[in-house]
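step: validate -> pass
step: tokenize input -> pass
step: predict -> running
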Amino acid sequence: MNRHGFYYHPDYLLHDSGPTHPERPGRLQSVMGHLIKSVVWAHLEHVRPSSATPEQVQLVLSEKQMTAIWVLSIVVLPLAAIALGVAVWWRRRR
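step: predict -> pass
step: emit ->
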């Protein structure tokens, strides 16, 4: 019989996209509850997910894309937050 990988981590329940979204925590808990009680559960290969290594990330992102993500997250977003804070402060100081 073929084995099928099943990835799950309790942190998945922290992802909340709203009460009607298919990935809502309550639905995931319900699916998990049914799976655990079913005969299918014993035939699944249970895998605990882990963070991707840089080498694994390079399999799906180019060097240019990784650089762009780094620049956005480390440089652009923090500078934008600072600029917005300064703009709010400047308008309220009067």
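step: describe -> The chain has two domains: 1-50, 52-94.
step: cleanup -> pass
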